């Protein structure tokens, strides 16, 4: 946790004390500017803003989650400038990362909320159970109460991960805990959704950078996601896209097509309906992303992704169990058809019976 | 409802509803037709009903030279979009996946660029048919709003499928949702409109041929 004296330092001071060179700092600024679709003219502005930014207070609340989001953001690997920027915020409360525990931890949170009222960033991962508050509590406080209390004084809220943004796994059918997302509960604060299971680390640092640079949240799409990172689908940026266009598909995970890098559509890839930066930013310090490793995209940054049918069924396959429905329908319809046919024949028969023949005499009357 | 929720609805509940309506509608209509029955023909049979019926299925699918001369455009454009619909529905890889999941039957797909070209040709043919319909006085006079609706229901899946594949104008989930929805509209309308000919055409042609066969005349 950051000490009080640290809070007086600017981000530039902290980065320098961590041995980050000017070159790698500027490279980070340039990468951030290009990732967020800003003009290169913005790079010095980002650099200056970051250089002089005071460490903002961040309170991180974890509710019904698996800690995968935190793992993603803090994962071991080469120390990146993103990590250092993440280290350089004043993370005043985070269950997993804080040294303090018990009442001391809760006190630290109270203090940060009080000191920085109206200014701190609230980061939330995990969904909130609404069925029974006892499903998930921290220090005896329900997730709902803790969220509402912390949200009240927040400048903005960043919902990290698919659970916090859309309910995620806890909300998957039949949603036993009555899980909801942050934006289901909070309507009066700016919320930025950073979905993904987990989200890409550079996306969260990019959002933080934007907030530090401009003092405001980046442009969002209609699902509350920063357009800079979620503006394009995996499919549109996928290096396997030419194979999709040609209709060359891997049929199994280890056939010749799979080995030749053909499209994974038939293996259930959700790339066409998933918006995220995996195909461009990639994972593990830019090593690769799931499709590059031969696995179809699961669509983890989209709402309801757990309930969107089997992960390994192609997008064109309906999620409904149509087979059984068709059998029952066909049987019922055949019976109805026979009944209607019989009714028609009966009508025809009675019409024939009621038919009176007209004779020549009748006409001459 | 967000786009993904709409997509999930059309892939789930929506598809289920459309399938139930399609299957129930087609079966009920076919049973009704078959059970209508005919008056017993007291005349002596002068030829085979079956072989004449089968022959007619083929002969009536090939245009006569006279009628071809009279309405070459209608016949050519009609063939293009009918074959085009067959190719796009049954020989496009994602569609075969759907069919094989539902029925267990699968077959090889045509290369996607060919299906794509066929879809474009079919769309052009259907547009040309509409223009022709309005340019021709008699056709225009005979056209009802119902005909235009059926035209729309037929061309919509082709257009939405084309833009979904090329990802034009909407987000990925929305494109796919709109495409599937347009197909579901077609499925729901099909049994209760002239589109029923998808299932009755060969039955009707066989019957026409069978009548002629019984009478011993050419069909």
Automatic annotation (TrEMBL), chain A:
UniProt keyword terms in alphabetical order: 3Fe-4S, 4Fe-4S, Iron, Iron-sulfur, Metal-binding, Oxidoreductase, Signal
Single GO molecular function: 3 iron, 4 sulfur cluster binding
Which SUPFAM superfamilies does the entry link to? HydA/Nqo6-like (SSF56770)
Q: Which cofactors?
A: [4Fe-4S] cluster; [3Fe-4S] cluster
Looking at the record, the residues that make up the NADH:ubiquinone oxidoreductase-like 20kDa subunit domain are 66-210
Where [4Fe-4S] cluster 2 binds, per the record, is at 235, 238, 263, 269
Q: What positions does the entry give for [3Fe-4S] cluster binding? A: 278, 297, 300
- Keyword Iron-sulfur in annotation: yes
What Pfam families does the database record attribute to this sequence? NiFe_hyd_SSU_C, Oxidored_q6
Q: What is its EC number?
A: 1.12.99.6
The record's note on quaternary structure and interaction partners says: Heterodimer of a large and a small subunit.
The protein, known as: hydrogenase (acceptor)
Q: Which organism is it from?
A: Solemya velum gill symbiont
Gene this protein is translated from:
hupS
From TrEMBL, chain B:
TM region positions: 15-36, 72-97, 117-136, 148-168, 174-193
Highest taxon of the source?
Bacteria
Q: Which UniProt keywords apply?
A: Membrane, Transmembrane, Transmembrane helix
Tell me yes or no: is ATP-binding among this UniProt entry's keywords. Answer: no
Q: Which Gene3D superfamilies match?
A: Transmembrane di-heme cytochromes, Chain C (1.20.950.20)
Does the record bear Transferase in its keywords?
no
Protein's name in the database: Nitrate reductase
Q: Which organism is it from?
A: Solemya velum gill symbiont
